Amino acid sequence: MTEHTQIRSEFYLEDGMTFLNHGSFGAVPRSVRVAQEEFRLQYERQPIRFAMRELPVLLRSTAATLGEFIGARGEDIVFVENASTGINAVIRSLFPHFKHGDEILTTSQVYGAVRQTILYAAACTGARLVEVDVPFPVAHEDEIVAAFVAGISERTTLAVIDHITSPTGIIFPIEKMIAACKERGIAVLIDGAHAPGMVELNLDALGADWYTGNCHKWLFAPKGCAFLWTHPSRQAETHPTVISHKYKVSYTEEFDWTGTQDFSAFLTVPNALEFYQLHGGKALRERNHALAIEARNILSTAWNKPAPSPDNMLGFMAAIEAPVFSSGTLEESVKLHDYLWDTHRIEVPVMPFNDTLWIRVSAQIYNVREEYETLARVFTI
Ligand SMILES: Cc1ncc(COP(=O)(O)O)c(C=O)c1O
């Protein structure tokens, strides 16, 4: 068994495919999935004891462990099923505060589901979505900052900023974007769906009001595991989307119980972190980052398409213009995606953005250079 097949066999990924889309839903290691099952069994063996006594303690100790990894205090962290739930909790909590004409600022690279959440907020409250175009291709991160700042107005009350973008896989310079908002008294919600595990986080020092991130993408947690971090000054006004027994008791208690559910994914964060650290931690981050750049360079050379962003704006994903397309529509992106899967057994997302189709490759521990060469050859031979 080569080292590569050995690492890949630690996941459930089926044989016979080139899997270049860790970014959409992650992939859980077997060891973490086994730990998850153990938490499920713990719940089933004595459901009352688990829910009443063990769960509250476990959730708080898990939050503290996660906090050490993301530079935050455990008491500022709550678990949610996914980044969408974290975003919804914050934006819906702000409904009573939005006034007619208030502006919620985001960028053209916002994740589609988050855009819809803001549009819902607008429909319910009279606030307005303002979506600034940010350049892509991009030569320097300051182009993003300049475009974003130009979208700020007197009426901007909330900025929703991606940490790592979905359509193009670039890291936004959020420190600079947050600072621009804070100078003007604008509240900031960071959508860090892709960040935990991909970039080093220090949430206490970031200066945002809220930060939500997935553990099920790049941190090896099972699906349905994400967190919301809230600055202490905002916790009293931040509520889960599902209101339950502990309404207004405290921030952590409100989120720690939102009704009966399967809590097992949340509780495996220490197991996921153990897997992450065991496989290199910082060294794994450097390896995946280098592989993403290498992948982008392989495709760029094979397809004669320029690199659309500087290397330092990449994490573990890279987008490159698709070599064949005519219109850059959603319909065409589905066709190209399906062709790659149906004909070549390559799973890779094709993103329509700015009238262009972008192929966004992921680089995770189980990926190797040869897989990107396989993708490159589809359009060169
Ligand atoms: C930038 C961004 N925000 C939010 C999400 C939503 O994540 P989830 O499906 O875990 O809620 C994604 C998912 O890919 C994303 O890329």
Describe the protein's topology.
Layout: H1 3-8, E1 18-19, H2 22-25, H3 30-45, H4 47-70, E2 77-80, H5 83-93, E3 103-107, H6 112-125, E4 128-132, H7 141-150, E5 156-162, H8 174-183, E6 187-192, H9 203-206, E7 210-214, E8 226-230, H10 251-256, H11 264-267, H12 269-278, H13 282-303, E9 317-321, H14 330-344, E10 346-347, E11 350-353, E12 356-362, H15 369-378
Parallel strand pairs: 1-10, 3-4, 3-5, 5-6, 6-7
Antiparallel strand pairs: 2-8, 7-8, 9-12, 11-12
Helix pairs in contact: 3-4, 5-6, 13-15
Bound molecules: pyridoxal-5'-phosphate.
Pyridoxal-5'-phosphate (PLP) is lined by residues 24, 82-84, 111, 113-114, 162, 166, 191, 193-194, 214.
If you had to describe this structure to a student in words, what would you say it looks like?
- This protein has helices at 3-8, 22-25, 30-45, 47-70, 83-93, 112-125, 141-150, 174-183, 203-206, 251-256, 264-267, 269-278, 282-303, 330-344, 369-378, and strands spanning 18-19, 77-80, 103-107, 128-132, 156-162, 187-192, 210-214, 226-230, 317-321, 346-347, 350-353, 356-362.
- With 381 residues, the protein is of the alpha/beta class.
- It has two domains: 3-31 and 280-378, Aspartate Aminotransferase, domain 1 (Alpha-Beta Complex), CATH 3.90.1150.10; 33-274, Aspartate Aminotransferase, domain 2, CATH 3.40.640.
- The strands form three sheets. Strands 2-8-7-6-5-3-4 form a seven-stranded mixed sheet, with helices on both faces.
- α13 runs parallel beside α15.
- The model has no long low-confidence stretch (mean pLDDT 97).
